[in-house]
Amino acid sequence: MKVLVPVKRVIDYNVKAKVKADGSGVDLANVKMSMNPFDEIAVEEAIRLKEAGTAEEVIVVSVGVKQAQETLRTALAMGADRAILVVAADDVHNDIEPLAVAKILKAIVDEEQPKLVIAGKQAIDNDMNAAGQMLAALLGWGQATFASELTLDGDAATVTREVDGGLQTITVGLPAIVTADLRLNEPRYASLPNIMKAKKKPLDEKTAADYGVDVSPRLEVVKTTEPPVRSAGIMVESVDELVSKLKEKGVV
Amino acid sequence: MDFELPEHASALIETTRKMVRDLMPHEPEFQKTGKVPEAVGKVFRDNGFFSLAFREENGGMGLGMLEICCIQAELAHLPVQFWADVKSSQGPQTKIIEDFGTQAQRQATLPKVIAGDLVMAFCLSEPHCGSDVSAIRTHAERSGDGWRLNGYKTYVSNGIKAGQAVVAAYTDRSKGAKDGISLFLVPADAPGYKLAGILELMGHHTPGVAELAFDDVELPADALIGEEGKGLSYVMHGLNAGRLAIAGTSLGMGEMALEEARNYARERPAFGGTLSDFQAVQHMLADMATEMRAARLLMLDAAWRYDQGDVSRSLCAMAKLFCSEAAGRTVDTALQVFGGAGYVRGQRVERLYRDVRVTRIYEGASEIQKNTIAREMLRD
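ok -> structure tokens follow
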């Protein structure tokens, strides 16, 4: 069985994001970029399936700028077998929208015929949480999003989902799309020897045009702003005053 | 001219940085107990850190000094004790075995070192001599088919838990240091091998360095490493790489101190603002950053040339000299930025202040590096 894992190159989660002066988005010039943390979890899950003998091959895909090949090399170093880079933008600020990503992924799925796609539930840059679901719709496959546990049994996957208010366990028939939530696993490091070995693993470079997908934006970003700065608090003299202030604010 | 690191080197640094960041939270516990948490060794074992320097045919990664120095600079953010075993796997003791040892000596040691199961010691300094290697008194004479070793060694890093030691000894004093010293591979369980003492240190203060005594240690003929009388040249062979690695160590300590000082200056309230509002502090930060940048470039240049086969004693000595001296100044200034808080036990800069001092001393003191640089300048 082949497993396909899409990965996105995003601003590193340790970087304090700054908004560009013209408000058009987050400034990514000379900013440290890394693999989307949820995608790392997806890669880890796929590698574990391979180590368990359930999967034969793990293919990683990234759609974006050329530098996303560094992200793919990381996935290869973690243990993926080969990579496909789809260059769809030449400026890091040009984010490819979920529908375009899903269409490209659909074309790759048609070619590669994986039985399972494991994706991160969302990318931490724009938190769209859409590409996985859109891909399922385009393919007409079942989907199990927000997975915190995944078990494969023959032609079915049993997935525990993190839903509002608790956990839900569902079974989907394969082929299917699973999106990974935070607690699915703890991803391994790309070990130093494997980083060197990953240099020799195959990485195919394609373009969006190769798949006949138009990646021009359909959404318009109206404005991007920094979160409001927290204003100073006030000191109260007594518990009674605290309670009355809270009542004033209508929070109790 | 391109100053970018190769992509794989950046990836190695990146993954090391990530592991270092994840191991950092173990520091407070370590500062309290002096014991290195289990998790630390596991991360290094699982991720190949003991194999960096060895050639691929021996199960290693075959990395060059450029990568090794950069990785070392990242590791040096952590307490020394966390990565002491990793560093020991790249030391002269293992490289000498790899480059000059017999197949049997390699097989007996390298796979275990790479697995993180064997720490080896390098025994050169003696109580009365360090840089002046010719003055060693340890000696080995022929005994039956093999050798009988006698002597006393000090400042042996990892000597406390070493399973095997590479020991320098005169085999023919009449030939002088150049042709009279030989190296031997001595297992720690050989009768007569004794851990004679432990020296606690100012920094790196646990577990300390060892004094090892060799009293009539009987060794088989195949304990001799390489050829008889070539010991000094084997020791010198690894000198430049060793110096580059210390450049990386000291650089990493300085860079860590700089980062700590910058963060602290931006947070610490002072006179209605933060420390970083004051030009006196700003200039400190600017000086530290400039020195660390210069140090890094000097190291990268020397290491890159070394890997291209352009091994320059002078450039390696300059990198070691400047990185360790600049790191010493940077850590000192960082502590000044912290003020009283930096002088408190358990503070990271306090740890760095103690640890960085020795980088100006070991692998050739700064004065020895200057001798080397001047000698190369004046030679022709």
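The interface with chain A takes residues 7-8, 10-12, 15-16, 18-19, 21, 43, 46-49, 51-52, 61, 63, 71 of chain B (CB under 8 Å).
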